[in-house]
Amino acid sequence: MRVQFQTSGGIGYFPGLAAPRTIDVDALDDATRQQLTTLLQETDFFNLPARMPSHPGSADYQTYRITIEDGARRHTVNVSDPVPLGPLRQLIDVLRAAAGGDR
Amino acid sequence: MCSPRHSIFCIMPPHILRAIVERGTLEERTAASRTLAVDATFRSLRATATLLRPIAPEVAPQPATKQRTIYTANNQQQLPGTVVASDKNPPAANADPAMVEAFNGLGATWDFYFEVFDRQSIDDEGMPLNATVHYGSRYNNAFWNGQQMVFGDGDGRLFNRFTIALDVIGHELTHGVTQDEAQLQYMFQPGALNESMSDVFGSLIKQRKNRQTARTADWLIGEGLFTPAVQGKALRSMKAPGTAYSDPVLGDDPQPDHMSKYVNTYDDNGGVHINSGIPNRAFYLAAYALDGNAWEKAGRIWYETLRDSALRPNTGFKRFAGLTVSAAGRLYGQGSVEQKSVADAWATVGLTVSSRLTTE
After folding, report:
1. Averaged pLDDT, B45-71
2. What's the pLDDT score for residue B354?
């Protein structure tokens, strides 16, 4: 399984932080990989809508673009802050940490 | 739209309003020009419906007061979080810096809009101001969620806490003002104008607090946000877009300072924080040419433009530039120094405004 994670938007645009980061799930430690697998199931990731609208009138929010390839399946989800508490929020936190934070 | 504070202008025929625009005091001209602008928005329809209602018993007007509430998210991501300060329970000066900065920053922003533009809060109707600090863990951002301001602590490695810069607090709150007045779409050129409005008024709030004139201000946005590890001065420079930072981790400041360098991209909602450098510089150039306190003339012209019903949600740079020149003409006279300075500022960044607007 391969994951691509990109954070964009926010109060400024920083070219060095905007590049998508690829996470090789097989290279993650067992606990993180298990957590990721569980969260993908809990979010029903491959059936999430590709775009989740931001709040009307909101600005400077960060947007997360998550692409996951698992065998023949490939799906991309775009979601913006504030993401409600729940498995999708947890998934973003895990991916952000696995991608090395904000570098 | 007929504001209750200028109800006299609601019953005046257009030719008298135009005479006031030409010969009245600044306040009279401002109110009259606002009334002259034909307002076909839903807000206008609401106002008309209000006027048609039966007259209610007279109620004494409430004095304008701040209604600030600061919450903490306790490093979680649940909004709004737990109340930690309000105008009824203001924070001690030595309390949590993020809480104190948010409280005072909201206060300075509220004071600016009320004392400079006679505007009561975000919606001009006394809307309570809510802000949440300590959002998320090492969270590198501040944003407006459509209802309130939200501030992260920063990761301490690249970014300090996001309440540290008064202009950033003013920036976020101004997104609310823009949402109320113009609903500028948050993408491509309308989005860059939305961003520029927040930078313009965020900077003016800081300049007024620090008693700086257009020529003594540094025109940086978000100074103090970067840790010493970052090679940069601030998030953006209105005076010299593209020069705020050059850092191995963050990259190089991507803002253009001229239309010839306009960045076509789908990133960043179509470059809203990138191409805002062009209208930002136009504002700086106009303010610098007019000298003095930037909020008094250039700020007034931009504020009147923001309130102009001709400013539509999909307005691009060129149309916006024309609206500022028109507003300058209404406020200070056709062919005035103020109007010429605004037109020259736009021309310098590559946006020529039709001469019809400055001569008619």
Report:
1. 66
2. 78
Final residue belonging to a domain, choices B129, B164, B199? B164
B38 vs B241, which has greater pLDDT? B241
- Helices (DSSP H) in chain B: which residue ranges? 14-23, 26-36, 42-52, 97-117, 166-181, 188-209, 267-271, 277-290, 298-307, 317-332, 337-348, 356-359
Distance set, CA B130 to CA B94, B176, B177, B202, B349 (Å): 21, 11, 14, 17, 37
Select from B107, B132, B164 the last residue of a domain.
B164
ipTM, 2 decimals?
A: 0.90
The DSSP code for B13 is: -
**Would residue A28 count as lying in a domain?**
yes
- Tokens representing A14 are 């920083």
| pLDDT given at position B315 | 98
Q: Are residues B271 and B353 in the same domain?
A: yes
Q: Are B218 and B352 in a shared domain?
A: yes
pLDDT tens readout for residues B291-329 = 999 999 999 999 999 999 999 999 999 999 999 999 999
Q: Would you place residue B60 in the very low, low, confident or very high pLDDT band (cuts 50, 70, 90)?
A: low
Say whether residue A14 is in contact with chain B using an 8 A CB cutoff: yes
Domain of A31 in residue numbering reads as 2-98
Do residue B119 and residue B267 come from a single domain?
A: no
Same domain, B343 and B219: yes
Instruction: Name the catalytic one among B134, B171, B175, B273.
Output: B273
Q: What is the DSSP letter of B258?
A: S
* B150 occurs within a structural domain: yes
Q: Which residues of B touch A59 (CB under 8 A)?
A: 143-144, 172, 175, 179, 186, 194-195, 198
Residue B16 confidence (pLDDT): 46
In a domain? residue A65: yes
- Tokens linked to B189: 């050129």
Is the whole-model pTM more than 0.90? no
Same domain, B10 and B82: no
* Contacts with B, A 19-48, CB within 8 Å: none
| CB-CB neighbors (< 8 A) of A82 in chain B | 77, 79, 145, 150
Residue A68 lies in a domain: yes
Question: What is the span of the domain harbouring residue B254?
Answer: 188-359
Q: Is residue B21 part of a domain?
A: yes
pLDDT in tens, chain A (103 residues): 899 999 988 999 999 999 899 998 888 999 999 999 999 999 999 999 999 988 889 999 999 999 999 999 999 999 999 998 899 999 999 999 888 766 5
Query: Within a domain: residue A11?
Result: yes
User: Which residues fall within 8 angstroms of residue B116, CB to CB, at 6 or more apart?
Assistant: B204, B208, B295, B296, B299, B300
Number of domains in chain B: 3
Torsion angle of the four alpha carbons B182, B187, B192, B193, in this order, in degrees rounded to the nearest 10: -20
Look at chain A and report how many structural domains it folds into. Answer: 1
Residues of chain A with C-beta less than 8 angstroms from the C-beta of B141: 10-11, 60-62, 81
